[in-house]
């Protein structure tokens, strides 16, 4: 893992600013002599820069995105708690953690920080930028902001504008955090009980009815309580509670809410036409959080875009789980196979 430290004032879309920031990032493989084998991975809400860990099956030795062929970069997004500047970082103006005073971030702010990292790494062209969910939102933003930098774009289970449905899910999760009495206290552990509940709520949008039926249905029909689904929700809440924090969840869920590529650009359709990258858009048929209509919209309005749909029992999380199906799409898409990264 490496850290990029930006020393200057970084102006945010809200009108606020950060007086410097850090971005934690990881690279795999080597930049070739032609500098044309860069694959940049944009991670989702609670993931990190260890893309070969959470996207195992797609990234790694012998996989579609292979460090033996590609120079792979994944940066922990600004506002996240895996080494990048976030609410528990020290505010250089006060010499105390930001806590609740951490500024509002948008995906454009996060992408702008990643683009500064790109320049720091002397990367002129990104051959493939790939991302799903919130990471896909950022990949779209980046391709609009820097249309001559990103040559190929792979977008999974994502959208041009976060929906009212998605915002409502996020607000319900933040309400759980807000109703944790500790949330009002400026401490590192504020809101952590609420975060467990928030994750339980979120999981209902990430998964699908079918996968719960298949994996969490009790065989013992005499039960009156303590169902498998009950313990599963408890387990998933505690799992996130151990590795994340409520401040970062609050910050990044709000960044997702404000995602709208059309803001200040004449609407989503007009903004998407700015993308020059050859684009693959992949939807998951059972995704209730980012329904396939949103990916079809992207494919319809991004020039040179192709749409593919995968069948999955897993709902939105299918973009993380169905790696063999995603690999098949990447490998059969001729204009990606013809790029130098696969030679």
Automatic annotation (TrEMBL):
<protein>
    <recommendedName>
        <fullName>Homoserine O-acetyltransferase</fullName>
        <ecNumber>2.3.1.31</ecNumber>
    </recommendedName>
</protein>
<keyword id="KW-0963">Cytoplasm</keyword>
<keyword id="KW-0808">Transferase</keyword>
<dbReference type="Pfam" id="PF00561">
    <property type="entry name" value="Abhydrolase_1"/>
</dbReference>
<feature type="binding site">
    <location>
        <position position="317"/>
    </location>
    <ligand>
        <name>substrate</name>
    </ligand>
</feature>
<feature type="active site">
    <location>
        <position position="287"/>
    </location>
</feature>
<comment type="subunit">
    <text>Homodimer.</text>
</comment>
<dbReference type="GO" id="GO:0005737">
    <property type="term" value="C:cytoplasm"/>
</dbReference>
<keyword id="KW-0012">Acyltransferase</keyword>
<keyword id="KW-0486">Methionine biosynthesis</keyword>
<feature type="domain" description="AB hydrolase-1">
    <location>
        <begin position="38"/>
        <end position="320"/>
    </location>
</feature>
<comment type="pathway">
    <text>Amino-acid biosynthesis; L-methionine biosynthesis via de novo pathway; O-acetyl-L-homoserine from L-homoserine: step 1/1.</text>
</comment>
<dbReference type="GO" id="GO:0009092">
    <property type="term" value="P:homoserine metabolic process"/>
</dbReference>
<keyword id="KW-0028">Amino-acid biosynthesis</keyword>
<feature type="binding site">
    <location>
        <position position="199"/>
    </location>
    <ligand>
        <name>substrate</name>
    </ligand>
</feature>
<feature type="active site">
    <location>
        <position position="316"/>
    </location>
</feature>
<feature type="active site" description="Nucleophile">
    <location>
        <position position="133"/>
    </location>
</feature>
<dbReference type="GO" id="GO:0009086">
    <property type="term" value="P:methionine biosynthetic process"/>
</dbReference>
<comment type="function">
    <text>Transfers an acetyl group from acetyl-CoA to L-homoserine, forming acetyl-L-homoserine.</text>
</comment>
<dbReference type="InterPro" id="IPR008220">
    <property type="entry name" value="HAT_MetX-like"/>
</dbReference>
<dbReference type="InterPro" id="IPR000073">
    <property type="entry name" value="AB_hydrolase_1"/>
</dbReference>
<dbReference type="InterPro" id="IPR029058">
    <property type="entry name" value="AB_hydrolase_fold"/>
</dbReference>
<dbReference type="GO" id="GO:0004414">
    <property type="term" value="F:homoserine O-acetyltransferase activity"/>
</dbReference>
<comment type="similarity">
    <text>Belongs to the AB hydrolase superfamily. MetX family.</text>
</comment>
């Amino acid at each position: 893992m490496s850290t990029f430290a930006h020393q200057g004032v970084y102006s945010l879309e809200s009108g606020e600013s950060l007086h410097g920031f850090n971005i934690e990032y990881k690279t795999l493989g080597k930049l070739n002599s032609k500098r044309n084998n860069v694959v940049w991975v944009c991670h989702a809400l609670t993931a990190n820069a260890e893309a070969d860990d959470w996207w195992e099956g797609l990234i790694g030795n012998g996989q579609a995105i292979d460090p033996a062929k590609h120079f792979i970069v994944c940066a922990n997004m600004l506002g996240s708690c895996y080494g990048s500047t976030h609410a528990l970082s020290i505010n250089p103006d006060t010499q105390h953690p930001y806590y609740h005073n951490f500024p509002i971030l948008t995906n454009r702010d996060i992408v702008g920080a990643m683009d500064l990292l790109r320049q720091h790494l002397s990367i002129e062209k990104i051959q493939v930028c790939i991302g799903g969910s919130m990471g896909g939102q950022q990949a779209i933003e980046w391709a609009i902001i820097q249309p001559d930098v990103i040559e190929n774009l792979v977008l999974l289970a994502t959208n041009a504008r976060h929906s009212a449905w998605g915002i409502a899910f996020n607000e319900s999760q933040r309400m759980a955090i807000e109703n944790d009495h500790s949330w009002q206290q400026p401490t590192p552990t504020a809101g952590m009980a609420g975060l467990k509940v928030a994750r339980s709520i979120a999981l209902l949008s990430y998964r699908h009815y079918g996968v719960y039926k298949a994996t969490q249905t009790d065989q013992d029909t005499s039960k009156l309580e303590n169902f498998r689904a009950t313990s599963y929700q408890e387990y998933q809440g505690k799992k996130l509670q151990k590795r994340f924090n409520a401040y970062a969840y609050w910050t990044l869920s709000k960044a997702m809410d404000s995602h709208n590529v059309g803001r200040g650009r004449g609407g989503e359709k007009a903004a998407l036409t700015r993308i020059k990258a050859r684009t693959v858009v992949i939807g998951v048929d059972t995704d209730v959080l980012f329904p396939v209509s949103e990916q079809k919209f992207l494919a319809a309005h991004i020039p040179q875009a192709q749409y593919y749909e995968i069948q999955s029992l897993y709902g939105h999380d299918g973009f993380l789980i169905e790696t063999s199906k995603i690999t098949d799409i990447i490998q059969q898409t001729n204009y990606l196979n013809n790029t130098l990264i696969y030679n």
